[in-house]
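Hi there,

I know you've been waiting on this one. I reran it after we fixed the sequence typo, so this is the corrected version. Both the input and the resulting structure follow.
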Amino acid sequence: MRVKRSVSGIIISKLISILIFLILLSIANYLIPLISTPEYQKIVWFINDNFGFLVSMSIIFAIGEIFFALPFPFNLPAPFFSATGAVFIVALIGKIFEFIEAFTYGEVSFPFWVISIAIYPIVFLIVFIAGYATIIASFFSPGHLPPKSKEKMKKEGKAKKGNKNARTWEDVGNEFRNMVYDFFSMMRRAFNKK
């Protein structure tokens, strides 16, 4: 079960992690003249060359996590960003394989680019479908559809007396959630009769 975090908490934690990464990369670049081994230099240059790629991947995952933290109608784009981030991870693994091959002067030969054509869409689809499955499964988690308390019903009644057509996004989300729940309950009853 996914733990819900606040949007501000996600943004702060991602910014701190990017800042820590920048500090560590700066220290690694500073140590290049002091550590004169070519292996160390190649590793740091590899990270420097892929800096924009790594930051882009981090931002895409942060956006996906922010969308997952939002309530129902607003969390629908989250699986797209998570799936795109998963493709970035697969691409990073390919870059690491290429780096290892170059680093070992071709002793380790793995044609990652050949299978990447098939892997990228498969990974994207798996993560995309799993993201929406997570959103749908969250409808049926315990406590997701709590019974309305008397105080909440009184507050809603008072708010609706002022403007009879006033609806909030929470109302829309609850109606959609109830609709999905009713649909799956109906399907379950239909299959249980057979």
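Quick highlight: Helices lie at 7-30, 38-49, 51-69, 78-103, 112-139, 150-162, 169-193.

Best,
R. S.
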